[in-house]
Write a structure and sequence with these properties.
The complex is a heterodimer.
Chain A lengths: L5 E10 L2 E11 L4 E5 L6 H8 L7 E6 L2 E2 L2 H4 L2 H10 E4 L3 H4 L5 H11 L4 H14 L15 H13 L5 E5 L7 H17 L7 E6 L5 H4 L2 E6 L2 E6 L1 H6 L1 H6 L3 E5 L5 E5 L7
Chain B lengths: L1 H20 L15 H17 L3 H18 L3 H26 L4 E4 L6 E3 H26 L3 H10 L4 H30 L7 H32 L16 H19 L2
Antiparallel strand pairs in B: 1-2
Helix pairs in contact in B: 1-7, 2-5, 2-6, 2-9, 3-5, 4-5, 6-7, 7-8
Classes of the chains: A alpha/beta, B mainly alpha.
């Protein structure tokens, strides 16, 4: 039996104001596209941070390719560099992710920290900027970019490392429909660009149900730090009770006083 | 008090906006833009030390005029940007050194009628030296900043062996102070939009303090997130940058000229 990419066993995590992950257990296989669904505060972002070893659980085990992720393990450079090279995290807040002075420096930051040679860094950055059609932004400062451009640069700054796993926190939040489509295309292109397509894994925290079928092959619905349901996007989207329970859809009241539930954006009924 | 702060945050934002626009001035073709960042930093540091060490008004004024001339030859927009800084320095250093005009003993120049204070020539000299030192140091620093693309300036500091942590802090401060100022202004405007009529001074002070507290929490959360984003991409406490800048012959000439000028200013009495 193959070792899962991520194996989370009975993990608990608590912030000062309450429990964020509650005896959570799950596995993620290599090559999967997993969507974490749930209302605000359900534990999605915390789980992503635990998967990226930015947070370590109070109790329970988190394993990556069979290796236990602990603070002790990350005190060793070799282990930390190997993990950071394989797992990339795109944060929800692009302003937090884009901390360098130019787009070029931002994209070069990761490869430089992982101590790649100067020539290799320049080659990778040029290639990545070209791939994402952001070469003209190379000398621009991040604060001069639009929301969609910031998100593209944030994604490029992670994918330049060519990680095996991509963790995305609300990647489509605040983006206009065109930018959302471009983002999806970029992710598709990245996953297809790999010689071994099965090697690329994407874990996305989202409440955008419109992009779910493009984003994921498996969905995990979270509530109060636990997984309350899992299944394919089709199965999850067809379970109205589950979506309402997870605060992913709401009942919408029309001026005509007709009330009906629907996910995400409102489309008038014909 | 709250209006005073709001007014100044707004002014700070305008100044910052000008500096952001001036990002592009470093990429223009001018005499100072053609010099390497490390050379400019070295010359600026030498001149600032000389100006601070000198007590000769005309020598300091000469450096001020020379710097301003070179800055204007490199980019005309610098005058608008420097004017903001000069006013700030004048109001701060001017107030700080004002007592020197009257408290320093020396030959009497004039007597203030009612108060009976005496303005001495020595006091005036000290006042002018203090003010000119501050204005000239700020002008030199701004000239380097406005004629050098920001990334090259940071890389130049690294070339001069400034610790990477210090350089990373300067870079992050530049990037994030604007976000905090924007947050502060948003909070103040949002509060103003919900107010009907003026508040009592006590209430205004209370709001000001609570705004400061919220801003502090926001900045702490943002800094944690930025740190996480850096760690996630392999940051382990040491920042690595691409390539060092090498000096061309003109950079060496500029540094030699700067060193000679600094020496001359420092020894002039």
């Amino acid at each position: 039996m193959q070792t899962p990419l991520f194996a989370i066993d009975n993990v608990n995590f608590r912030y000062t104001d309450g429990k964020a992950l509650d005896a959570l257990s799950l596995t993620i296989e290599a090559g999967e596209r997993v969507a974490l669904l749930g209302a605000n505060g359900s534990g999605k972002s915390t789980l992503l941070r635990v998967l990226d070893a930015l947070l370590f659980p109070e109790s329970g085990d988190v394993r990556f390719c069979g290796e236990l992720l602990t603070e002790d393990a990350f005190s060793e450079d070799e282990f930390a560099y190997a993990f950071r090279k394989r797992v990339g995290f795109v944060f929800q807040n692009s302003d937090a992710q884009l901390f360098s002075t130019t787009v070029f420096d931002e994209v070069a930051f990761g490869p430089l920290q992982l101590r790649l040679g100067a020539g290799e860094v320049r080659r990778r950055v040029a290639q990545t900027l070209e791939r994402f059609n952001i070469s003209p932004l190379s000398d621009r400062a991040p604060h001069q970019l639009s929301g969609g451009e910031k998100r593209k640069v944030a994604l490029a700054s992670v994918l330049v490392l060519d990680p095996d796993v991509l963790l995305l926190d609300e990647p489509t939040a605040g983006l206009d429909p065109r930018s959302q489509t471009q983002l999806m295309d970029m992710l598709d292109e990245w996953q297809h660009s790999s010689a071994d397509r099965c090697a690329k894994t994407i874990v996305t925290a989202t409440h955008d149900l419109h992009t779910l079928e493009d984003m994921a092959g498996r969905c995990l619905v979270m509530e109060r730090g636990r997984v309350i349901a899992s299944g394919s996007p089709g199965e999850i989207l067809s379970d109205r009770d589950l979506l309402e329970r997870g605060n992913l859809v709401h009942a919408h009241r029309h001026r005509s006083r007709h009330t009906h539930p629907h996910p995400g954006l409102h489309r008038p009924q014909v | 008090m709250a209006n005073f702060v709001e007014h100044h945050v707004s002014h700070l934002m305008q100044g910052w906006d000008l500096i952001q626009r001036a990002d592009s001035t470093g990429r223009l073709h001018g005499p100072l833009q053609s010099l390497s960042a490390p050379a400019k930093i070295v010359v600026a540091a030498l001149l600032i030390v000389a100006v601070v060490a000198s007590t000769h008004v005309w020598a300091i004024l000469g450096i001020f005029v020379l710097t301003l001339t070179l800055a204007l030859l490199s980019c005309r927009v610098v005058f608008d940007l420097m004017r903001i800084a000069w006013l700030g320095v004048f109001s701060f250093t001017g107030v700080m050194s004002l007592p020197a005009l009257f408290l320093t003993r020396g030959p009497e120049l004039l007597r203030v009628p009612i108060a009976g204070w005496t303005l001495t020539s020595t006091g005036l000299h000290i006042f002018l030296v203090l003010l000119l030192r501050a204005e000239t140091a700020v002008t030199i620093t701004l000239t380097v900043i406005l004629t050098t693309p920001w990334p090259r300036l940071l890389a130049g500091l690294r070339t001069l062996k400034v610790p990477s942590l210090v350089v990373a802090l300067i870079g992050a401060t530049y990037r994030y102070v604007i976000l905090l100022l924007e947050s502060a202004l948003d909070m103040m405007q949002s509060r103003r939009s919900r107010l009907v009529g003026p508040l009592a001074p006590r209430e205004r002070r209370r709001l000001l303090i609570s705004t400061g507290g919220v801003l502090f929490s926001k900045s702490a959360a943002l800094s944690q997130e930025v740190h996480d984003a850096m760690i996630s991409r392999g940051y382990r406490g040491e920042t690595y940058v691409l390539g060092e800048q090498r000096n061309a012959p003109r950079d060496w000439i500029a540094m030699a000229a700067g060193a000679l000028l600094s020496l001359a200013v420092a020894v002039l009495r």
